Amino acid sequence: MPIDTAKYLKSRWLKAADLPPGRATSVTVKLADEHTFEQTRETKPYLDFNELTQSMSLNVTQFKTMVALFGDNSDSWVGQRINLRPVISSYQAKLTIEITEAQAQLPTFNGQQVGSVASQPTLQPSSDIPF
Description:
Order of helices and strands: HEEEHEEEE
CATH class: Mainly Beta
Oligomer: single chain
Radius of gyration: 22 Å
Shape: globular
């Protein structure tokens, strides 16, 4: 049986090239924490996800996006749904990961969305009104 080489070559850290090109991957934040990298001795924030085995080290833009979306208390990020999309950055034109808030999926029944804004009854003029 052949060895799954991707299993051994995959980094602990998620890179844009690890995501499917051209589309968003929806994930749920499992953990927001900090990690000190041995080589640079730099401490950076990172996220773990329920759906992925790799962690994502956050750059300044990604960190500011998380704060703008969910507040400056990183504990409140846990459980939040976000989209990760590989994009070319405007800084040095490098491939990076864009974070956006995942839109809530409304339930469907027989192919029709349910749970959306309740429809308001349409009032029709009536000649029975005495004024």
